[in-house]
Amino acid sequence: MNSESIQNGILRQYLLRMLSDKDAEAIEERYFNDATFFKELRAAEMKLICDHLEGRLNEHERRQFESRYLHVDTLRKLVEGVRARRLAVRHAARRRLLHLALAGAVGCAAILGVAIFGYNRTKTASTPVQSASVASPPAAIRLALAPGIIKGPGSTLPEFTLPDPPQLVSLAAELPGQMSSAAYTARLLNVDLEGIHKNVWTARAIQSTPRTGGQQVIVELPSASISPGDYILELEMESGRIRETYLFRVKPSLKEKENRQ
């Protein structure tokens, strides 16, 4: 087995959450700072989704895939988008075959003097992958966060614009497959241009609450405690194990943008 096959196998295990915490953290550290490696991870994710759609996963892989990709809104929409695009390609191929068959039929009809009538082509639109949406209630900014691969060229991080004046920010972090409530420590890390992580905010003993397909942790903090940039939210269990990590971006306020111009 060559090194490429070994790496693809490791990436698949990471996507299915079958790696140890230490190995998973090493991959997350690398893809967050290495755009080329992130593309390889995205390619492995697309291959994994296609294998699932074609029924090529073994029983253990299928259970792991469904517990994650069918319970996280962002990942489920990604699967739906891949399925729609595959169907659109197949329909387009069938239409091309019908075109060839029709052309042959028209040629024969010209020879035989038989009138052939055309047909109407139907257009199939593929379903775009949706990014995490941002809801803005009057009393707070609410940002929905889902674990998964959403960083890199062509992708979109969940984001919000700093309010002016400052107000409460509510981060709703999904915990797919987590059926029982538990207490978590939330750490907010700022990532600078050199990829260095700086802890800027911590809250302890946050109890998770039920949601469709699992639990969620609501992390609330004042917008004045953060600045524009990229952030990682870590949810740590009582055992010290990192349960999930989430990426999002904070954009400067409109007033700050005007001051820069």
Summarize the SSE layout with pairings.
Blueprint: H1 3-15, H2 21-33, H3 35-53, H4 59-69, H5 73-112, E1 134-135, E2 140-145, E3 159-161, E4 168-176, E5 183-191, E6 197-207, E7 209-211, E8 214-222, E9 229-236, E10 242-251, H6 254-260
How would you describe the overall organization of this protein?
The chain is 39% helix and 27% strand. With 261 residues, the chain is of the alpha+beta class. It has 2 domains: 3-69, no CATH class; 134-260, Sandwich (Immunoglobulin-like). The strands form 2 sheets. A 5-stranded mixed beta sheet has the order 1-2-4-8-7, with no helix packed on it. Helix 1 crosses helix 3 and helix 2 packs across helix 3. It is globular.
Report the CATH architecture of the largest domain: Sandwich
Shape: globular
**Structure class:** alpha+beta
Report the order of strands and helices. HHHHHEEEEEEEEEEH
Share of residues in strands: 25-35%
Instruction: Give me the CATH fold name of the largest domain.
Output: Immunoglobulin-like
Number of domains: 2
Total beta strands: 10
Fraction of residues in helices?
A: 25-40%
Overall pLDDT metric: 77
What's the main sheet like? Answer: 5 strands, mixed
Given this structure, which CATH class of the largest domain is correct?
Mainly Beta
Q: How would you write the strand order of the largest sheet?
A: 1-2-4-8-7
